[in-house]
Design brief:
Blueprint: H1 2-21, E1 24-25, E2 38-41, E3 46-50, E4 53-57, E5 65-68, E6 71-73, E7 78-80, E8 83-84, E9 93-98, E10 104-109, E11 112-115, E12 118-120, E13 129-130, E14 136-138, E15 143-145, E16 148-150, E17 159-161, E18 164-166, E19 170-173, E20 176-180, E21 185-186, E22 191-193, E23 198-201, E24 209-211, E25 220-222, E26 228-231, E27 234-237, E28 240-245, E29 252-254, E30 259-262, E31 265-268, E32 271-272, E33 283-286, E34 292-297, E35 300-306, E36 313-317, E37 335-337, H2 342-346, E38 370-378, E39 391-397, E40 400-406, E41 411-416
Parallel strand pairs: 2-37
Antiparallel strand pairs: 1-38, 2-3, 3-4, 5-6, 6-7, 7-8, 9-10, 10-11, 11-12, 13-14, 14-15, 15-16, 17-18, 18-19, 19-20, 21-22, 22-23, 23-24, 25-26, 26-27, 27-28, 29-30, 30-31, 31-32, 33-34, 34-35, 35-36, 38-39, 39-40, 40-41
Length: 421
């Protein structure tokens, strides 16, 4: 019996140690490149990547500007996911987007609304707007949920909270009418109330509401635009009860619907952390995916996430790359801004593997060096492997293609005269 236990222990340690060093160059959802749209801007070229897409963009680099979520423009054309739309740009702006692998982006240019590459004629562009912290939008004629018309709504009185909408006549869940509105209002997207009763969702995924008889409406206060509320003097995130009580709602700072601060405490999905960030200067840098956000404070840039099973809080500092290369990281911006020069790389103020990372491989001329692809390392280890993946960059010069790995140890490798994207 003891021999079997010892053998199992050795096998576990072997596989665990193996998982700690195993790394594949791909995104978490099996994308070949990056999950989110990424423009790579060099001195004389621009590339676009998203999941399985890699393409060179035919643009005027000197006037090229990125709006976000795959939308960009130069002095003559607008681009979506790297494709030229032949639409004359006039300060294009994103109105809202549905973040998924094949995300839907609604944007405005001149007096027209576009859905990805298609112009939508049915929407009144002069009155069209997104309703904050929700997937609803409206113009003077209609209400829309993720671009689909919600039938029978009254746009003038329509308001929303997360996936629920309300007008003077009805309550809506996503794009469906679910009940008559007896002055029902959201508290935080899980709790609701009318003039006499507090209700809650039957479960986390249900649109059915059931009364909570032991709660008084005056003891349930909404924190506007968030999934948080104060219930009987206790802070809640949706149905999750936090340990914070007797708080002054006016001192809460809302960063987005899931991220708030109170005094010196950061709340993300109702979970707090003992790791220190500068709360006074904290801002959302990028909303990211369903499981992660990127934030900044006066000291750096960080990825924050909460594990869905045990509600463990992780903060990863991602602003620790050497200064000349830190703009390579797609986690920092929607773009990869490249500024290679011999002075930047070899300047005594900077240290990249003791300044020999490039010169040891024979790269001394940086004028023709460009980044043509960005890949993210994915560690397919067990659930206890919290080691972050590396960032990989495919570089190109007159000799051919190079792989630059930025990790705990930076590595530059020549990979040949040709490269298959």
């Amino acid at each position: 019996m003891m021999k079997n236990i010892l053998l199992l222990t050795l096998l576990f340690n072997y596989f665990f140690s193996f998982s700690q060093v195993s790394e594949t160059k791909q995104a978490y959802n099996q994308c070949k490149f990056l999950e989110k749209p990424n423009y790579i801007i060099n001195k004389n070229s621009v590339y676009f990547e998203k999941c399985a897409i890699h393409r060179k963009v035919n643009t005027n680099v000197s006037s090229f500007k990125i709006v976000g979520q795959g939308l960009a423009y130069d002095d003559k054309n607008i681009f979506f996911n790297g494709m030229k739309l032949n639409v004359t740009p006039n300060k294009p702006i994103i109105i809202h987007d549905q973040y998924r692998m094949n995300s839907t982006v609604y944007w405005k240019n001149n007096n027209f609304i576009y859905k990805n590459t298609l112009k939508i004629n049915k929407i009144d562009s002069s009155s069209y707007k997104r309703i904050s912290y929700s997937s609803y939008s409206k113009d003077k004629h209609h209400v829309y949920y993720l671009g689909k018309t919600v039938k029978g709504t009254d746009p003038k009185t329509f308001v929303s909270e997360i996936t629920y909408g309300f007008d003077k006549n009805f309550v809506y869940h996503k794009n469906k009418r679910i009940r008559k509105n007896g002055f029902l209002k959201p508290i935080n997207g899980y709790f609701f109330k009318d003039s006499t009763t507090v209700y809650k969702r039957k479960d986390s995924y249900s649109e059915k509401l059931e009364p909570v008889l032991n709660l008084k409406i005056e003891n349930c206060k909404s924190i506007t635009g968030t999934k948080y509320a104060v219930i009987n003097d206790t802070l809640y995130y949706l149905s999750r009860k936090t340990k914070t009580t007797n708080l002054n709602v006016e001192k809460i700072k809302v960063l987005d619907d899931e991220l708030i601060t109170y005094e010196n405490t950061l709340f993300y999905k109702g979970v707090t952390t003992t790791q220190k960030l500068d709360i006074s200067s904290l801002k959302i840098h990028e909303r990211g995916s369903e499981y992660q956000k990127t934030v900044t404070d006066k000291n750096g840039i960080y990825n924050i996430r909460v594990t869905p099973y045990n509600n463990e809080f992780f903060i990863e500092n991602i602003d620790t790359l050497p200064k000349p290369l830190k703009h390579l990281s797609p986690l920092l911006e929607n773009t990869t801004q490249i500024s290679f020069s011999k002075e930047n790389i070899l300047n005594n103020n900077y240290s990249i593997d003791k300044k020999t990372l490039f010169t040891d491989k024979g790269i001394t001329n940086f004028d023709d060096l460009e980044v043509v692809s960005v890949l993210k390392g994915y560690r397919p280890g067990c659930s206890q492997d919290h080691t972050p993946g590396s960032n990989y960059y495919i570089l190109k010069n007159v000799k051919g293609y190079w792989e630059l790995k930025l990790s705990a140890k930076n590595v530059l490798t020549f990979i040949g005269e040709m490269y298959q994207f």
